[in-house]
Specification:
Chain lengths: 258, 271
């Protein structure tokens, strides 16, 4: 029992140490010369542009379902005119960034984890290192920065589409003009809602990129480890998103709303 | 008959020819010098006491069973793995004490062909070959890049493979392209990790002959890790035999083949 506890504790501490060291390597390599801007643009295209469909559909359905679910309850209180405001505030402040980050953790973190894991297994990363190329800068830095840039943009896009979905949902059970719906929606949102949410999604993006790269880059040998890297990348990134969200909500409450 | 047992056998030094050979070796320029190299993975001591010299312009074959630590040795040379103790000097400089920048410069001078060829599978053959030129040598001149790519593809006998993806290549072709990608930066030393593993006999011989041909063309010094006798016979100027984490014998292919030592004989009894 005691030995098992010691082994688990040591493994946990080792993992924390490795992740910290990996993060230092990431930051150190951002500022080293020879940064590959072309690869960064390619990663932004893969991570950002190729996720537009998934994120867009998720955003529309998010707003649509949220409206349909809340409309009957608010109707009972005669407060259906509050639906646009409620949808706007809840999507922009909380649900939009978190749901989109979780969706992206599933799509992007797993894809990065599997790709780098597969490169590790087939010795491609070692080949890159031994050739004298900076593998961390080429493979890791570009991916993490691309995630950090693209996830907030995808989140903003999803927020906007969620309002479209909300408008459609509102018109399924009633008759509201688009102008009225969006006027009411935007009247409820302020920069104090948008900015913390945007900053939060930057951290979500960083977590998704970092965890995906860490799990892939440090995967074990063997084909099984590629699956393990992809899977643990999704699980860890999702967990990080929840933790970051909890911290962000606390900070926002203290700094923005007091 | 010439062959000598390294480590304790060598130190007894009764064989005159061995002494002469040692003297001759001392006259040659040493490119890689390994002394008392040890490396363990947990409780598994893989390299127990490795002593090895690679001389300029020679093809040195390291022959040994799988799992003996042959690949670990060459990975320690380029610091893909960190040694536990001992000395590794490449071009006269201790590898273990090099800074990142010094290590990068050293790695450019050493080519490493992986067992799996390790081609970047998301890139075409041309992109694979251009990668070290653009990212490591920082070449910008498109004409020079194209010329180097075409030259090296010609050298490995695959002039029309530039636009193919690694997934479209056979095992032998992948090895050739891996070799081309390594040679395109004109390394002074080549480290081959099981260059013929997984290939049929004919392709293995072709790759072995290619190694010899390219060694002459590019004037490299090479360490070839293998357990393939045919490859060892074709490529070697000198062979060292590895057993149980240490080198036990050294000599030419013919010398070792005639050896009476049972550990050495075991390698040459392969069907």
């Amino acid at each position: 029992m005691s030995e098992s506890y010691t082994a688990s504790r040591n493994k946990f501490l080792e993992e924390v140490g490795n992740q910290t060291s990996f993060m230092f390597r990431f930051f150190r390599n951002i500022f080293r010369g020879g940064f590959d801007w072309g690869e960064l643009v390619r990663q932004c295209y893969i991570i950002g542009y190729k996720s537009i469909g998934l994120v867009g559909i998720t955003g529309v359905i998010l707003g649509f379902v949220l409206t349909l679910q809340s409309l009957p309850t608010l109707k009972d209180f005669g407060a259906e005119s509050y639906v646009p405001r409620m949808v706007a505030v809840s999507v922009v402040r909380e649900i939009g960034p978190v749901i989109i980050a979780l969706i992206c953790a599933g799509k992007i973190a797993s894809s990065i984890g599997a790709e780098l894991g597969s490169m590790k297994v087939t010795e491609q990363i070692e080949a890159m290192e031994v050739s004298g190329a900076n593998a961390i800068q080429y493979l890791v830095v570009t991916r993490i920065i691309a995630c950090t840039l693209m996830i907030p943009i995808l989140t903003l896009m999803a927020d906007a589409l969620a309002l479209v979905g909300g408008y459609v949902g509102n018109n399924v059970g009633g008759d509201v003009s688009a102008v009225l719906f969006y006027n009411k929606s935007f009247s409820a949102i302020d920069f104090v809602d948008l900015i913390p949410s945007f900053i939060k999604s930057i951290f979500f993006g960083f977590a998704i990129g970092f965890v995906g790269c860490y799990k892939g880059y440090n995967s074990d040998r063997g084909t099984e480890s590629v699956g393990v890297a992809a899977n643990s990348a999704v699980v860890s990134a999702s967990l990080w998103i929840i933790v970051i969200d909890a911290i962000a909500v606390q900070l926002t409450s203290v700094l923005a709303y007091n | 008959m010439y062959w000598l047992i390294i480590n304790e056998h060598m130190e007894t030094g009764t064989d005159t020819k061995a002494k002469e050979k040692k003297q001759a070796a001392n006259d040659k320029e040493t490119v890689i010098e390994i002394r008392h190299l040890k490396k363990s993975f947990g409780s598994n001591e893989v390299l127990k006491d490795i002593n090895l010299d690679l001389y300029k312009g020679e093809n040195l074959v390291v022959l040994g069973k799988s799992g003996e630590g042959k690949s670990v040795t060459i990975k320690c040379i380029v610091r893909l793995l960190e040694k536990d103790s001992g000395e590794i000097k490449v071009f006269g400089e201790e590898v273990g004490s090099m800074s990142d920048a010094e290590l990068k410069k050293l790695r450019i001078r050493i080519g490493f062909l992986f067992q799996s060829a390790a081609l970047y599978d998301s890139m075409t053959v041309r992109d694979n070959l251009e990668f070290p030129l653009r990212k490591v040598l920082k070449l910008k001149d498109e004409a020079e890049i194209n010329k180097r790519v075409e030259d090296v593809l010609e050298s490995v006998g695959l002039p029309d493979a530039a636009d193919k993806l690694p997934s479209d290549l056979s095992g032998g072709m992948r090895k050739r392209i891996g070799l081309a990608r390594t040679l395109i930066v004109n390394p002074e030393v080549m480290l081959y990790d099981e260059p013929t593993t997984g290939l049929d006999t004919i392709t293995s011989e072709e790759i072995s002959e290619l190694i010899v041909k390219l060694q002459k063309k590019y004037q490299t010094s090479s360490i070839i890790i293998t357990h393939d006798l045919s490859c060892a016979k074709i490529t070697s100027d000198r062979i060292v035999i590895m057993n149980d984490g240490a080198y036990i014998a050294e000599g030419t292919f013919d010398e070792l083949k005639e050896s009476k030592d049972e550990n050495v004989c075991a390698f040459f009894k392969q069907p």
